[in-house]
Amino acid sequence: MFWPRLTVVFAAACGLAACSQPQNAEEPTAPKPAETAGGADMAFSPEALSADDMKQVSVNGELGCAFALEKQSPALLIARGNVGSTTPASGIIKIAGRTIPLKSREPSGFDGLADGATFEGPAVTVAIERLSKDSPANTTNGSAESPPYPAKMILSGESGAENAMNGLWTCGP
């Protein structure tokens, strides 16, 4: 249920953005990092994932998590895994126009994702740190199946470049 909803939300956001921009609007800018160290530049920032990106990298599992800058923003990282698994979760991120497959360091499938996780891929390590055990109020009755939690995504490159940004970590079906 989570992935079809994520796809529908992503498609709706793309359609809404396309309709609401003036004809001569500038290209959207990359997300602004919360922190930058080690000589990182904006080329080391994650980019929004599309349905085509998801076709390029196999991300398997019955449940998943996604990191986005805001509640209605497109996902910058998507990870999936199986409950009760002893294999790493798989994920995907896009940097400098290149989709990069990720594997979690923890061999615990989905169970290792909800509170944050560290992922490794070619030339990059990505850590998701959940900043709170409490989800912000996101529904009228205060409950939700897949509430977003404040989180920080930290990217570390082989060159020592780092880039960090605050956003939301949402996990569920």
UniProtKB/TrEMBL annotation:
Keywords: Signal. This is Lipoprotein. It comes from Altericroceibacterium indicum. The keyword Protein biosynthesis does not apply. The keyword Zinc-finger does not apply. Residues 1-25 form the signal peptide. Residues 135-144 have a biased composition (Polar residues). Residues 21-40, 132-151 are annotated as: Disordered.
